[in-house]
Structure formats: C-alpha cells, structure tokens
Design brief:
Length: 159
Amino acid sequence: MCDSYSIRAKQVLFLARLESGARGAQILDLDDLLAGLIIEDQNAIPSALVRLGMTGEFMGSPEHHPFLPRDTATSVLESIHQSLPRSTPIPNSTDMPISSGLGEILAAASDLRQKLQSKEVTPLHLLAVTMRESHSGVYALRDVGITEEEVLKAIEDQG
C-alpha cells in the first residue's frame, strides 16, 4: 500500500508509529497520524526523534515550506500529547495494527491520489482526507481556517 507514498508521507506514518508506541498505545489511530503530520509539516522530525528517545543520524526530509501555521501546529500537537492516555511504551520493533478509522483514511488518501492523478500520496493528501473527520484536532485546524478545500488547492498548486 505504501508503494505509492512519497518519502514525506512514509515519514508521517513512521512518526505516527513512534508516537503511538511512545505513549503505549496498542493500536495506531487518527491522533497518531495527526501528530505525525504536524511534526513532519513543521520540519520538526529531528527534535521529535530526540524527544521519542531515538539517537543517531537522520537522513532528513525533502525541503518544504510548512502548510500549517506554526502556532496552530504547536497548539494541536500539545493538545494531542496532553489528552492521550499513557502506558508502558511499546518497543519500536513491535508491529502495531492500525484502527479501522485510520485504515479508512489511508485508503481515502490513495483514492484521492488517483482522483487528482497525483504521482504519489503526499502528507497533504493525508491531511485533506483527515479534515473530513470529526475530531478535536481537526476542529482546531478548522477553527483557524484550514479546510479540506484549502488543502486540495495546495495539492493542485504543487501540481
């Protein structure tokens, strides 16, 4: 399924897995995806990896301008981190299942890629379909004017 994902989109999923495991979740869910999207969007992967206990060299991400306003991204990420229950961390080497809701989002992102005739699923494809959800993080993004339509326009502009 991830064969059609860009490097950046794969990094979002990797970050989602790390976030989920760090909080001891048994399953990857929308909160984890949103956290991964925000971290990647804000070019904050190296600091997130340090926070999550990862050491070593990071290859880096293709350069990009953040889509989300910094203050909003910071606020939503903090809210996610504070609102989720914590348990014993899950080792990074352990496979984790994804929730059915997250599976639907990933499938919808692939469908959107095909509909828009994009070469790859990008973080913006993931964000666009995530914006359809009823979720506190999505509401926070909508409150500052981030809409599915705005994300779709950004995808088209990347062209």
